[in-house]
Amino acid sequence: MARFRTWVSIAVAGALGLSLAGCSSTGGKRAEDARKSQAAQGRAAVDTPRWTFAMITHSGDGDTFWDIVQNGAKQAATKDNINFLYSHNEEANQQAQLVDAAVDKKVDGIIVTLAKPDAMKSALARAEKAGIPVITVNSGSEIYKKYGAITHIGQDETIAGEAVGEELNKRGKKKALCVLHEQGNVGHEQRCEGAEKAFDGKMTNLYVEGTNMPDVQSSIEAKLQSDTSIDSVVTLGAPFAATAVKAKEDAGSKAEVDTFDLNDKVAQGLKDGDLGFAVDQQPYLQGYQAVDLLWLYRYNANVLGGGKPVLTGPEVVTKDQADKLQEYAKRGTR
To answer: Residue 129 and residue 108: Cα distance in Å, rounded?
Structure first.
């Protein structure tokens, strides 16, 4: 009888073990599905406090690149139960004042770009003194530690420039024009410097007023007309690629137009053959990761990167990837 009871106990224990294992497996999946459903419906997938994070960038008005960054940040903010505040100003001193305003609001975290870092030093020192964690995004990969940031998310602009130079070499280009649309932006200078370093041919910089597209077009057109040996034009932002194509056509030039960054129009340009290639730094990922990493830092003191920047690029994309990427670009995530 005792032996019978022992075998029954073993059988029951085994059945319970199988049942619990099944519950653990399917229950975990159900929980994950529930979290995804909540995020999709605009509800948080976590129960941490409703922290407020502010993102302050050097973007000008109407820059689609920063729309994509915001889309990523907002998606992560929804998931992480974050009150997300976004502001921007292309003037460095005005951007610094926006950081000061965020500090005065006693936000729980700040995400900031360092395109013109000298102007940001005092404001970020105030944030550090106030105990507000800071993450830099997009620009500032080489100096973020000096400004008290816990990490940086983006691409190394010099490495990205080198990727362009190497791609131009593969395409047999001999003379390239690098179009800088924002004077004083250290990231833009690094892109062209990196491209020139890796390019076997000759590269010339052309400075234009990025807020004035007719001026951008006429400047590129004039340069192509005066130097017919230019066989490649490299723009540093997606909105300028189509303008460069129009300038090339009006100048009667056969130069290939290539660009940094990706959006729907660039993807279409790659498909149509108007553009040779684009360098994608994945702005959606920059915004998403910035919010997510700030949340992880507040929640669990986690820091990614091991003291190095968290890189989101560069990725060289061509006509071969255009179809797939255009679908994502249309929804505002690439």
So the answer is: 13
Q: How far apart are the C-alpha atoms of 57 and 98, rounded to whole Å?
A: 9
Distances (CA, A) of 289 to 156, 281, 286: 16, 13, 5
Both tokens of 167, joined, read 């791609």
Q: Which of 171, 135, 325 is nearest to 255 (CA)?
A: 171
> CB–CB of 51/82 below 8 Å?
yes
The DSSP annotation for 152-186 comes to: EEEE-HHHHHHHHHHHHHHTT--EEEEEE-STT-H
Pairing verdict, β 275-280 and 315-317? antiparallel
Q: For 53-80, write each residue's pLDDT tens digit.
A: 999 999 988 888 999 999 999 999 999 9
| pLDDT of amino acid 7 | 39
Q: How far apart are CA 126 and CA 112, in angstroms?
A: 14
Amino acid at 90: E
Q: Provide the β-strand partners of residue 44.
A: none
Question: Which amino acid is residue 64, in one-letter code?
Answer: T
Question: Between β-strands 310-313 and 151-155, what pairing exists: parallel, antiparallel or unpaired?
Answer: parallel
How far is residue 210's CA from residue 215's CA, in Å, rounded to a whole number?
A: 8
State the pTM of this model: 0.79
Closest CA to 279 of 200, 181, 194: 194
Is residue 157 within 8 A of residue 197, CB to CB? The reply is no
Residues 129-144, mean pLDDT to the nearest whole number:
95
The dihedral region occupied by 149, where left means phi > 0, alpha psi between -120 and 50, and beta the remainder, is beta
Give the pLDDT score at 41.
56
Q: Of all helices (H) and strands (E), which one includes residue 92? A: helix 92-104
231 CB neighbour count, 10 Å cutoff:
18
Instruction: Residue 317: name the closest of 273, 272, 267, 274 by CA.
Output: 267
* Placement of tokens 């959606």 in the chain: 284
What is the DSSP-derived secondary structure letter of residue 311?
Answer: E
Sign of CA dihedral 96, 101, 102, 103: positive
